[in-house]
Amino acid sequence: MVLRLWYQLAINSFLREMTRLPGVASIMVRNSFADGTYTPGGSDIDVVVILEDDPSRIPSLLTKLASLQSRFRWFYPM
Predict the structure, then answer these.
(1) Band of the pLDDT at 7, cuts 50, 70, 90?
(2) Whole-angstrom Cα distance, residue 34 to residue 28?
(3) Contact, 65 vs 57, CB < 8 A?
(4) In a 10 Å sphere around its CB, with 0-12 CB exposed, 13-18 middle and 19+ buried, how is residue 48 labelled?
(5) DSSP code of residue 55
């Protein structure tokens, strides 16, 4: 139960951070986490981020996404 809550906290935190980034059009989770068949402590969380069609924002967004991923891997090593 605790690991299941940890996963939910991770995805909620990630979504909150992602919605603050300019240029993010949509965010989706997929595979086992999306359909509820994930194994807490054994499954990863697969996320797809759709960006707006503005190529000038891509380098900045990729830098921010890489930083965000590093922080989340440290706090949520799944």
Answers:
(1) confident
(2) 8
(3) no
(4) exposed
(5) G
Q: What is the token pair recorded at 30?
A: 């997929």
- What pTM did the predictor assign? 0.69
Q: How many residues does the chain have?
A: 78
Closest by CA to 34, choosing from 70, 71, 7, is 7
pLDDT per residue as tens digits for the range 29-78? 899 888 988 887 788 888 898 888 888 888 888 888 888 888 888 777 65
- The 10 Å Cβ neighbour count of residue 2 is 8
* Secondary structure (3-state) at 47: strand
| Residue with token string 């603050």 | 20
